[in-house]
Specification:
This protein is α+β, with helices and mostly antiparallel strands and 645 residues long. The chain folds into four domains: 154 residues, Glutaredoxin (3-Layer(aba) Sandwich); 321 residues, Glycosyltransferase, CATH 1.50.10.10; 68 residues, no CATH class; 58 residues. Helix content is 49%, strand content 13%. The protein is built from 24 helices and 25 strands. The protein has a five-stranded mixed beta sheet, with helices on both faces. Strands 15, 16, 17 and 18 form a four-stranded antiparallel beta sheet that branches. A four-stranded mixed beta sheet has the order 23-22-24-25, sandwiched between helices. The chain is globular and about 80 Å long.
């Protein structure tokens, strides 16, 4: 029998609509039931491609006995963290306060009937293991405590909520200066894996914003260390495992240090950010390899992860309850695929070795395709082998795709398409059409929304990250086309975001039901605050210098934390460097600028913009004044080359 999720739009909630657990969506109906029946609330937060969310569902939420305990003793609420990042953010903060460490998904929170949290966990096993009691045993303990020790639980819950909303934050400001550059390079080196690239130990995430920062620093300083850390990481990640060599696209993270065995889900934000970073590496090195990976990633997203010009949020790691089943190959089936493609036996042996395919396998008896030597692509029949393995996959069921459209994630994808369009013209049409569709679907009568399904009417209003990333995408669209209507819309979004979320240098991520602070620290993708500052710096250079005041006030408030530990907030660090160095704006009439749009990516100063102007020739300006005038663009490049030190 269907529960109360059957009419919800979220694909994640629909995954649970037939559970025997009587799930409710977040809302008054569930809250009133809890108050009327004086029951504690069990809140479960997850997302559709989350492996451990699937495990907990399989073990507990489809189990009739567990469901009966939940239904009898609790009011159960399901939340899609991607649809409601405000709720998720609030309860991640709750978890962190209660447990002294970061949480994860699924997030399991127990609340009083008045929505006060008193117990928090992540995945809870169905049997005692990992040093944890079983879920059913925990439910009995919590039910007993709620009935007999409710006052104590409420006191603890109030204490947590009080810590979440301190009356006054102490602000420690420090001077912003260029010493941050040496400091962040030093910190990156300390965390860098000099053997396999990336930062820290497994599980290893791509950390695209750190790589982007290092590539920008290479443009500024020509320090080879920053380039080497970036290129080793990007080449290692592209070998296979994290990167899907057969169909393209990157998985979310690697479970080992060598990037061999991924967590197989593919997220739109990872693929958007990584394609941008690979393009930046291409422009820094002129090596075609990086461009090819970027284009392969974009093509995967356009082919597999989009519909009607909009991009889905994620594809699943699991198939038929088995992680990675879609992506891996048995030795025998790989050989059959090669035979079917008429690849000679002599060539097959070399290809098997080159693609890391063996009888014993490299993942639970099967094989994840990987090339340890990028020169393997020149082997005879290499492309035929890849196509044969791709054909084999096409006979399989593709993993579940969450078809939810999220504004911030779509904006990241669109931004990368516009950047790619400056190198390869074929990406301009999908970039412009996707941006137009996103605005038409999600920016309605001056109101921006956060997420929807294709063909549905958006209901959830936007958060700070949606304004910030969409604004950035619009600026990138302007940089690629010089169409000032994009700047007008970006300015409107920035003004709305300031009005809604800015307060004396601090930013809120959300207001309303959950008022949450916006972070400066990059997690899976860059922070909404740093992205907002990126937008405002661009607008201060291209539209009105007044926006720089908001940037300075924000940087001042967070100066102590970022100057001390710049590696923990790479995009915020980049914004400090950009603020200190200042943008350079190349001004000329549109016809002259259009001829040089492609060169904006190869200029060895990363904070370069172009602006339509009526002056004769090319004018070089910063945010305060103009300092150079050249008849030819070549002269501009010579002046900019001297700024590198």
């Amino acid at each position: 029998m269907a529960n109360h999720l059957k009419n919800e739009h979220s694909p994640y909630l629909q995954q649970h609509a037939d559970n025997p657990v009587d799930w409710y969506p977040w809302g008054d109906k569930a809250f009133k039931k809890a108050q009327k029946e004086h029951k504690a609330i069990f809140l479960s937060i997850g997302y559709s491609s989350c492996h451990w969310c699937h495990i907990m569902e399989k073990e507990s939420f489809v189990d009739e006995k567990t469901a009966k305990v939940l239904n009898d003793k609790f009011v159960c609420i399901k939340v899609d963290r991607e649809e409601r990042p405000d709720i998720d953010k609030h309860f991640q903060d709750v978890y962190r306060l209660m447990n002294g460490s970061s949480g994860g998904w699924p997030t399991s929170i127990f609340l009083t009937e008045d929505l006060k949290p008193f117990y928090s966990a992540t995945y809870i096993p169905d049997e005692p293991k990992y040093g944890m009691m079983s879920f059913k045993a925990l439910l009995d303990v919590i039910d007993s405590k709620y009935k007999n020790e409710k006052e104590t639980l409420v006191i603890e819950a109030n204490r947590v909520l009080q810590h979440l909303r301190p009356k006054e934050d102490k602000i420690q400001a420090t001077k912003l200066d260029e010493s941050i550059i040496a400091r962040v390079i030093d910190q990156a080196e300390q965390l860098f894996d000099s053997k396999d690239g990336g930062f820290n130990k497994a599980p290893k995430f791509p950390q695209a914003s750190t790589l982007d920062l290092l590539l920008n620093l290479y443009q500024l300083t020509q320090d080879s260390k920053t380039l080497n850390m970036s290129t080793l990481s990007l080449k290692s990640m592209a070998k296979g495992g994290l990167r899907d060599i057969i169909e393209g696209g990157f998985c979310r993270y690697s479970t080992d240090n060598e990037w061999r065995i991924p967590h197989f889900e593919k997220m739109t934000y990872d693929n958007a950010l990584l394609s941008e970073v690979y393009l930046k590496a291409y422009h820094a090195t002129k090596e075609e390899f990086y461009k090819e990976i970027a284009f392969e990633t974009l093509d995967f997203m356009l082919e597999k992860m989009s519909q009607d010009r909009l991009f889905y949020s994620a594809s699943d790691a699991d198939l038929e309850g088995e992680e990675g089943k879609y992506f891996v190959y048995s030795y025998d089936k790989a050989l059959k695929a090669f035979d079917k493609a008429n690849i000679p036996k002599k060539a097959q042996a070399l290809l098997l070795e080159a693609l890391s395919i063996s009888k014993e396998g490299n993942f639970e008896g099967k094989n994840i395709i990987r090339i340890d030597d990028h020169n393997s692509v020149t082997l005879p029949y290499f492309q035929e082998a890849i196509e044969a393995l791709k054909d084999k996959r096409e006979k399989r069921t593709y993993p579940f795709i969450d078809t939810k459209v999220i504004v911030s994630w779509n904006a990241m994808m669109i931004k990368s398409l516009f950047i790619a369009a400056r190198t390869e013209k074929r990406y301009l049409k999908p970039a412009t059409k996707s941006l137009a569709k996103l605005l038409d679907t999600m920016y309605i009568q001056g109101k921006l929304f956060h997420s929807t399904l294709i063909g549905k009417t958006a209901k959830i209003e936007a958060f700070l990250e949606d304004y910030a990333f969409l604004g950035e995408a619009l600026v990138e669209a302007y940089k690629t086309t010089l169409d000032e209507t994009y700047l007008i819309t970006a300015t409107q979004l920035a003004n709305s975001a300031i009005e809604k979320y800015y307060e004396h240098g601090k930013w809120k991520f959300s207001r309303g039901e959950f008022e949450t602070k916006a972070d400066i620290y990059d997690s899976s993708y860059p922070s909404s605050v740093s992205t907002m500052l990126s937008l405002l710096l661009s607008l201060s250079s291209l539209v009105d210098v007044v926006y720089k005041k908001f940037v300075f006030k924000t940087l001042e408030i967070y100066s102590y934390d970022v100057m001390r530990q710049p590696i923990t907030s790479p995009k915020m660090t980049l914004m400090i460097i950009r603020y200190l160095k200042d943008d350079i704006i190349i001004k000329a009439n549109e016809k002259k600028l259009t001829a040089h749009i492609k060169e904006i990516d190869t200029i060895n100063y990363p904070f370069s913009l172009m602006k339509n102007d009526t002056n004769d020739g090319f004018m070089l300006c910063n945010s305060n004044s103009c300092f150079g005038h050249e008849k030819e663009f070549k002269g501009i490049l010579e002046i900019l080359a001297k700024r590198v030190h």
